[in-house]
Design goal:
heterodimer, A: 254 residues, alpha/beta, Rossmann fold, 7 helices, 10 strands, B: 570 residues, alpha+beta, MutS, DNA mismatch repair protein, domain I, 5 domains, 4-stranded antiparallel β-sheet, 20 strands
Chain lengths: 254, 570
């Protein structure tokens, strides 16, 4: 009796499995940093998904760090798949030479500058359905829950990462207070970098906080900013690094 | 420049009995001027004079009114302005003259009748004309635009009137009417319709019909009247009174002809060909023979590239978006077949929807690369459905591709061997451009400039731009640098220690620099000595800024040593 009931359920369970895609069945974009990848659900960001990031504070420097964080992810994806990255925004203050230094050469980026967020979301959706870009980065402030769900669905269908930079509408407004269907939500801010032994500015450090992820816990971490291929790094232990730096300096002096 | 020649008037005799040689009451003398029946009446001559432009009207004295004082024989006579009745055709616009460059001087190249009445004539120096009539509407002549317009007119002639029609620069059209005139109701009717068409379009047209293109060309420009028809075998007689310039001769040949006393075409006709060719050159003889029909002169017609088009007429008028989309798909499939047969791809599409009430709805899409892919074009057209107002229903659709480019098979390379194709972004670009406009999709290309805000420029999204030099640059660059206050910095080349920006104080813990950017002296005078020293600084919370100081700290010319924020690093 029991087994008969189970048998009748068996196809529907298989059906349910196909709907709730198992963790291992989708393509992932690893960061290449064990400390982050091990804490993400499937060993990296899901490729066909919507990922949101916002600045930790209203300061422009945090906004810049968030921009570079997303640019790094897109740069690595573009290097893998060979397609252009679509950068959709309503503003024009992005400086392309710096994007090139984050791994997104001018040959790899197509910009779309729309009048308002509604047109921007329509453009993103069209672009995802088109399937040409390897990744899409969008800067928007007003994104409703329904819009994020639509984006998540089309992104999953096209297996294309959609990276949404949520901008603050007001000084004290937190974009993550609104609900969203995004797969992961990140909060990025700048952190003091390691002092060099010589005068000058070292590699940037960011405080990366994963505020929410599906199928995983949130965490926060200090990482070193993306290099020219868009890769992050985890800073070495302070004492260890200091010793290393001192060693090289000594050799150089000798 | 020689002023235009004054038309010769047949002057009336003076009615004044004291001035006349024959007393009024006297007997009749055969041959007396006043007794000629063919003489024009005073009214006729007055009307003739009034119809002339002001500057061409003869002075009073020339008309024989001796009651006025004679002009001084040595001083230049001043033209007395004569009050005339308004011209028969009322002038709807201010007098216009076109000014263009002829050789190395600015000349009036064309003047309307109103301007000619004010004494402006083609060939006059532009400054002279401006001095004469200060408030005349002077506009620059656009020969290229004129030529383009004439070309369009020729295309229209090819499509509507005769398959053989060509432009005769700079101002004429040849239309071969042989075998076509009956389609337009005969030569006479066709000419009148042509003149009426040109009047409606805003042109003044002169039409001549003759046996040869050369004769028609000459008569249309130098003949009497706006509409001249020369019957078969009447060419030589019609051409005889025309000046030699009508034969399209070279200026040297014209000068030679003037020297030898040849004034009109009639003078050339009886002269033996051999000596004539030695005097005027062989091309002049060829031109004469072409005009008379001795030498053929074929017209090379303006070719009319056939525009690919597809059309659907519906049994019932439709109005829903789904139905329109269905028709769009059908039309695109039809058009794709036409395009493929010709090896073309569409760069733009125009869909005309004819509504039941007789009006048209027009939508158009453009693509950045030639394509005939139905699904892609349908997606672009679907974006335009919301702009179609079906009204009571649409019963006919026409899809044309006004702009096409060759599209052939594409080399796939070694795809089977695993080589991946570079994804063509043109479809994506089309989709986005259809949504937010062509100017809103772009790539950013490097410009060779060290000034940061000038180093980037928007470029074509389908072209792959180059790279920038690897200097450290901020991810967000302000369009206008923002001033910093209370800056503490060691001169001349140390980054600031602290500064105030947007009302907040920042304490700098590390800095790189300076990176010196010199002004671009070839752009502006103000930049000849200008210097910016850029520093990358980090504050105690890890924020990185790109600040610069105007001036190098030694020379006053290089800047006022003020500090500015130009961008933020991530």
């Amino acid at each position: 009796m029991m087994s008969a009931a189970l048998d009748s359920f068996a196809p529907s369970i298989a059906h349910l499995r196909t709907i709730a895609t198992p963790v291992t069945e989708y393509r992932v974009l690893p960061f290449g940093v064990d400390e982050i990848d091990s804490r993400l659900g499937a060993g990296g960001l899901r490729a066909g998904a919507l990922h949101e990031a916002t600045a930790q504070s209203a300061a422009l420097v945090d906004d810049a760090a968030t921009t570079l964080f997303l640019a790094g992810i897109a740069a690595r994806e573009a290097a893998n798949t060979g397609g252009p990255v679509l950068w959709a925004s309503c503003r024009a203050d992005l400086y392309a030479p710096a994007l090139e230094q984050a791994g997104l050469a001018s040959a790899n980026v197509i910009y779309a500058q729309s009048q308002d967020d509604a047109a921007l979301l329509a453009v993103i959706e069209d672009a995802v359905r088109d399937g040409t870009p390897s990744a899409i980065i969008a800067e928007a402030s007003k994104v409703a829950m329904v819009a994020t769900r639509r984006l998540q669905l089309v992104a999953a269908e096209a297996d294309m990462p959609v990276l949404l930079l949520r901008r603050r509408r007001g000084r004290d407004q937190d974009p993550f207070s609104e609900p969203s269907a995004a797969w992961t939500r990140w909060r990025i801010g700048s952190a003091p970098s390691a002092r060099l032994d010589v005068a000058g500015v070292g590699r940037a450090r960011w405080s990366v906080e994963l505020a929410r992820q599906r199928g995983g816990a949130s965490f926060s971490l200090i990482v070193e900013g993306s290099d020219e291929t868009g890769r992050l790094a985890v800073p070495a232990e302070l004492g260890h690094r200091a010793a290393e730096t001192a060693g090289t300096a000594r050799y150089a002096a000798a | 420049m020689r002023p235009p020649e004054r038309p010769s008037l047949q002057l009336p005799i003076d009615d004044d009995p004291g001035a006349c040689s024959v007393p009024r009451g006297g007997g009749w003398r055969p041959g007396a001027k006043w007794a000629r029946s063919s003489a024009q009446s005073r009214e006729e001559v007055e009307a003739q004079i009034a119809s002339l432009p002001v500057h061409a009207q003869p002075p009073m004295r020339e008309l024989g009114r001796r009651s006025e004082a004679a002009s001084h024989p040595y001083k230049a006579p001043t033209l007395a302005p004569r009050v005339i009745a308004p011209a028969a055709a009322p002038v709807q616009h201010a007098p216009v003259a076109l000014v263009g460059k002829v050789g190395r001087r600015e000349e009036v190249v064309a003047a309307c009748t109103g301007a000619q009445a004010l004494g402006i004539h083609p060939g006059m120096a532009a400054t002279h004309a401006r001095a004469l009539v200060s408030d005349l509407d002077f506009r620059p002549a656009e020969p290229d635009a004129d030529a383009a317009l004439l070309d369009r007119l020729a295309l229209l002639a090819v499509r509507r009137w005769s398959p053989i029609a060509a432009v005769t620069p700079p101002d004429g059209l040849w239309i071969d009417l042989a075998g076509c005139d009956h389609l337009h109701g005969g030569e006479e009717r066709f000419c009148r319709r042509l003149v009426a068409f040109c009047r409606r379009a805003g042109f003044t047209a002169r039409v001549a019909v003759a046996d040869t293109p050369g004769a028609a060309h000459a008569l249309a420009r130098f003949g009497k009247g706006d509409l001249i028809r020369v019957g078969p075998h009447g060419t030589a007689d019609a051409l005889a009174p025309l000046p030699l310039a009508a034969l399209r001769l070279a200026p040297t040949a014209l000068a030679a002809a003037r020297k030898f006393g040849f004034d009109r075409i009639a003078d050339l006709l009886p002269v033996a060909r051999g000596p004539l060719a030695r005097r005027l050159g062989l091309p002049a003889i060829t031109r004469l023979d072409q005009a008379l029909g001795g030498v053929p002169e074929p017209i090379t017609p303006r070719d009319d590239p056939e525009v690919p088009a597809a059309e659907r007429r519906l049994l019932e008028p439709i109005g829903t978006a789904e139905a329109i989309e269905q028709v769009m798909g059908d039309l695109l499939r039809d058009l794709a077949v036409v395009l493929q047969a010709k090896g073309l791809g569409a760069r733009s599409l125009r869909l005309t929807c004819l509504r039941v009430d007789g009006t048209e709805q027009l939508v158009a899409v453009g693509t950045s690369r030639p394509t005939r892919e139905v699904s892609h074009l349908l997606r672009l057209l679907k974006l335009r459905i919301e702009r179609i107002d079906p009204g009571m229903g649409i019963e006919q659709f026409m899809l044309v591709a006004p702009h096409t480019e060759p599209l052939d098979a594409v080399d796939l390379g070694a795809v089977l061997a695993g080589e991946t194709l570079v994804r063509d972004p043109s479809r994506l670009v089309d989709v986005i451009a259809g949504r937010i406009g062509v100017r809103s999709v772009f790539r950013i290309a490097p410009v060779e400039s060290h000034v940061p805000e000038r180093a980037v420029a928007h470029s074509d999204p389908n072209e792959v731009p180059g790279n920038w030099p690897a200097w450290q640059r901020p991810i967000r660059l302000f369009a206008h640098p923002e001033p910093l206050h209370r800056v503490l910095a060691l001169m001349p080349d140390q980054p600031p220690r602290r500064f105030e920006w947007r009302g907040k104080t920042y304490k700098v813990v590390a800095g790189d620099g300076p990176e010196r950017v010199h002004g671009e002296w070839w752009r502006r005078d103000a930049e000849v000595w200008a210097v910016r020293d850029y520093y990358r600084v980090e504050d105690e919370t890890g924020g990185r800024f790109w600040v610069f100081r105007r001036g190098d700290g030694f020379e006053d010319d290089t800047g006022d040593l003020s500090w500015w924020m130009h961008g933020v690093f991530g």
